[in-house]
Design a protein that fits this description.
204 residues; alpha/beta; Rossmann fold; six-stranded parallel beta sheet; 6 strands; 41% helix
């Protein structure tokens, strides 16, 4: 029998983005070309700005060695997004992070960032243990490992939903008829037309 929670649609009022360790050193070590991944992450953060989705950011210590959030992503972050340093691979093992998520009173956590087979994997497992519904954006996570598919399969077996930026963007915005969007969204897009590039136009 299908678990009904697996069929729940992502809605802006119940969703938060957790951007894990998207730091300069991890981007530099990324297997493959970083440009397309950074472009999708930028689009994801702009989507959060457009619809007012909360974003929490983690950075792994020592930041002096591993670098801060990649500059391209800093520019795209919503104003005031909390940035929390961590020493544990599972972000949920750092006291400040579960408290920050719980304070938002949202039960659906979307996860992006690095590394797919270490901090993303262990953080997703930690979130699931806490009872959160978790979506991992497989085209917005990355690793130094050429093949991190085993980690993706493990997260899925544990109960995470694996998706893509394109699916999430259309799921959250819900309709092609933008006149039905909240006025705040339409106002932001009028002020900054580049906040929502067509998801299918992004690099694969």
């Amino acid at each position: 029998m299908t678990d009904p929670t697996e069929l729940e649609q992502a809605v802006p009022s119940n969703t938060v983005l957790l951007l894990v360790d998207a730091q300069t050193s991890f981007v530099a070590q990324m297997a493959g070309e970083p440009g397309p991944v950074l472009t999708r992450l930028e689009a994801l953060l702009c989507l959060c700005r457009l619809i007012g989705l909360p974003v929490l950011v983690t950075v792994e210590r020592p930041v002096s060695e591993k670098g801060d959030v990649h500059p391209r992503l800093v520019q795209a972050l919503p104003a005031g997004a909390p940035r929390i340093e961590k020493s544990t691979f599972d972000a949920m093992a750092e006291a400040g992070i579960p408290h920050a998520i719980a304070a938002l009173e949202r039960r659906h956590v979307v996860v992006a960032g690095a590394e797919t087979d270490v901090c993303v994997l262990l953080t997703v497992l930690g979130l699931l243990r806490k009872g959160y519904r978790v979506t991992v954006l497989t085209d917005c996570v990355f690793s130094s490992a050429p093949d991190a598919s085993a980690a993706v399969r493990r997260m899925e077996r544990a109960g995470a939903v694996c998706g893509t930026y394109k699916t999430l963007a259309y799921e959250l915005t819900a309709t092609v008829d933008r006149s039905r969007w909240p006025e705040a969204w339409r106002r932001r897009l009028a002020d900054l037309p580049d906040l929502f590039p067509p998801p299918e136009s992004l690099p694969s």
